[in-house]
Prior knowledge:
Layout: H1 2-22, E1 35-39, H2 43-58, E2 63-67, H3 73-79, E3 84-89, H4 90-102, E4 106-123, H5 142-147, E5 157-161, H6 170-176, E6 181-185, H7 189-202, E7 208-212, H8 216-219, E8 222-224, H9 232-236, E9 255-262, H10 265-268, H11 270-278, H12 283-294, H13 300-310, H14 312-319
Parallel strand pairs: 1-2, 5-6
Antiparallel strand pairs: 3-9, 4-7, 4-8, 4-9
Amino acid sequence: MFKSVFIARTLAAALCVSAALMFTPARAQESTDPIKLTLHDWTGQLITTQIMGEVLKKAGYSVEYVQADYLAQFAGLESGDLHVAMEMWETTGRDAMDAAIATGKVENFGETGMLAKEEWWYPDYMKEKCPGLPNWEALKDEKCAEAFSIPETAPKGRYLGGPVTWGGFDDERVAALNLPFEVIHAGTDAALFAELESAYQRKAPILLWIYAPHWAPAKYKGEWVEFPKYSKECYTDPAAGLNPDAAYDCGKPFGAIWKVGWAGVKDKWPGAYSAIKAFKLDNDEMGQMITKVDLDGKKVEDVVAEWMGANEARWSGWIKK
């Protein structure tokens, strides 16, 4: 009897160890220090980061979430005080990312699988008041600009930009293209889309920064303004664009959303490094998760937990690589 119980307990212990090893990538050589993932100020990035963090926890790592500025975070990534940034958008963050990578202290961990679009956007009902849209040159017409004005900017139109910390060069674009508009920056991501909701319900004038992946382009009928095509030279050489005296006289770049981090991650936490590189989501599933948080009122943590439960085979593959 005693022998049978002993054998049963030994087998159970062995099974527990085996299960732990399945989700623990070569922990013997890896640091037990917390991996610090940066959090920013928009819903999608909070979801992306917490999915990655929860996956790393499942693999046995200690994880710490750190609130950080989107562009200023690179100082911490270069020093190793911060470790992973899960969303660096080609549209707004490429210059800062490239500069940090050039130091040799930051590494590009690859694409997230999501594609970024960020540009000026207006509701369909505004096209009647500015019929030349979506061509950007329609915005040069003073009547069109006034149609987008509010009392604080009239007769100039108002462009509602994202928070200043997002970058994007909207003020520079207005000056370079001689647009009769004033750029007003929303304080937060939530404030930006709350104002869109309010204006859309009242059919009030609004021209603002909208990005994808996001729920807004699906919920509201509208169009992005078509600016001159982006080129890297447009952002760096005034002679390359329409205005020979100013840069940024073109549209925003389109492209990938990248994962970046401290170059020391691969040596300190090699298993985590492999998992981060393996992480992939697409625009559709991210848009659905953002909708659950921003429109349905669910908590980010609950949406992440739901995704983890529905995609175990997928994320467990990331931590076995």
